[in-house]
Amino acid sequence: MKKIIIALLIAMIIPSAIFASRGLLDVTVGAVASSSYTIGDIVDVANGTNSFESLDLGVDKFAFGADVEAKVAFLAVDAKIMATDNFKTLYGSVSADLALDILFVRAKAGVSYNYAYNLETKAMAYGNSVSSVTTFEDYKKAAFDVNVGVDVLLGNLTIGAFASLPSATTIENQKWGELFSSATENWKDAKVGMTVGIALL
Fold first, then answer.
1. Radius of gyration of the chain from its Cα atoms, rounded to whole angstroms
2. Residue 20 to residue 29: CA distance in whole angstroms
3. For the chain, how many structural domains are there in total?
């Protein structure tokens, strides 16, 4: 089993080293914008179920903030923090992703742990809409999100798009086998966003 794992790691490192446009170490800092609309909302408009005019595209429907990503070989850790609800709430996520660079495109997939802080009530929340908790002591009961994303690497400039799909998997229930299947079932609840960053390394 160990030999298989090592072989898989090597198989992922080699293409990362050969095709990476920025090398094996990359630290990117930039801005992020995320919509409160879900993929389901967009699909409904595309199918004609809802009209485009029904979507309120006001600034208050988007969250804006900062994004920091550190990538070593094919492993990436990303942290986002955004202001939402007219700057009444701080929302963010910390994710661990597998990231593969092929020429000027980076494909990413992984899991994230979300948090939110209400500046007015001073209340914290952890997890996603499927399963969330209000105290850090209960963090094991908070569900993860599944992340997918694509970045375009233009020299030191990075322009990316991502989607966060809620799952029902928590540290407590340990339904790791259902992590991606439950996220796939909840794909209409996925929220999308964009990032723009500058590579420091």
1. 18
2. 18
3. 1
Over the stretch 36-89, which tens digit does the pLDDT of each residue have?
Answer: 777 877 777 677 676 666 666 666 778 899 999 999 988 999 999 999 877 888
Please state whether the predicted TM-score (pTM) of the whole model is above 0.70.
Answer: yes
Q: Could you list the residue range(s) of the whole structural domain that residue 191 is in?
A: 2-199
